[in-house]
Amino acid sequence: MKKIFILILIVNSLNGQSFTELTEQNLFRGGNVFLLEKLNKYDNEIDGTPYLNPDFDKGKIVFENGNSYDGEIRIDLVAQNFQIRGKNGKITPIEVNDKVKIEMNGKEYKLHALNSVEYGEIGILRKCIELEKISLYYFPRKKLQKPIEAGISAPTSGYGKTDNPEWKDDGFYFFLIDDKYIRVPTKHKKLSELKVFDDQKYKSFRKKSKLDLKKESKLVELVKYFNSN
């Protein structure tokens, strides 16, 4: 009887072990994470960074079935993909589908099908708040800002450039309403013109809450209000 009890304990212990933890070797076997052949390389002469964070952060790749992979991760905002760094220092670019979420620094990122001519077919969005009727996401992006050409200052100088090109933040927020991604304007008039909210309710909420469309905390309040009203 004692042997049976010990055997049961061993089996339960094995079942409770990290079968939800994926190794780097089987990370790509589930069909949700795809290994990319080439790592994007960027000109070192360009100021700024094309990444959300140039350093790798400790993060987690989480699958729908609860399996997860812990590792060092960063997001390439220009290529709109993820990179993982192995224990040997090797950097591997990957793509994920919409069944996978990436957790880093207490924030959740996921690939969304935007199906937009203006913003692209897909995009990596950070979840701000997800509710039944309306959700809010942040779309972190980078754009390459070219230097301003200076005029001729002397007959021998010709045209010159005042600065190096630079990666600049170009992110914005999306409302998700009725399966449509709607870019959040930074002007109240523009948002009213979209007619996604009842105009009188919007004006009342705006006045009462001192709504600032550039502040995430205020946008979250707006989403909560219209989800329940």
Largest sheet, spatial ordering of strands: 1-5-4-3-2-6-7-8-9-14-15
Instruction: Please state the overall shape, judged from the principal axes of the Cα atoms.
Output: globular
How many helices?
A: 4
Q: Give the ordered list of helices and strands.
A: HEEEEEEEEEEEEEEEHHH
Biggest sheet features: 11 strands, antiparallel
How much is the average pLDDT?
85
Output the radius of gyration. Answer: 23 Å
Question: What level of helicity do the residues show?
Answer: 10-25%
Q: How many beta-strand runs?
A: 15
Classify the beta-strand content into a percent band.
35-45%
Cα end-to-end separation: 62 Å
Keywords:
single chain, 229 residues, alpha+beta, 2 domains, eleven-stranded antiparallel beta sheet, two-stranded antiparallel sheet, 15 strands, disordered N terminus
Short characterization:
The protein has 229 residues and is an alpha+beta fold.
Q: Could you walk me through the main structural features you see in this protein, from its secondary elements to its overall organization?
A:
The protein is of the alpha+beta class and 229 residues long. It folds into two domains: 19-184, no CATH class; 185-229, no CATH class. The chain is built from four helices and 15 strands. It has helices at residues 2-16, 188-194, 199-209, 216-228, and strands at 33-35, 57-63, 68-76, 81-85, 91-96, 100-104, 107-116, 120-130, 134-139, 142-145, 149-150, 160-161, 166-169, 172-177, 180-183. An eleven-stranded antiparallel sheet has the order 1-5-4-3-2-6-7-8-9-14-15. The protein has a two-stranded antiparallel ribbon with strand order 10-13. It is globular. It starts with a helix and ends with a helix. Mean pLDDT is 85; it is low at 2-22.
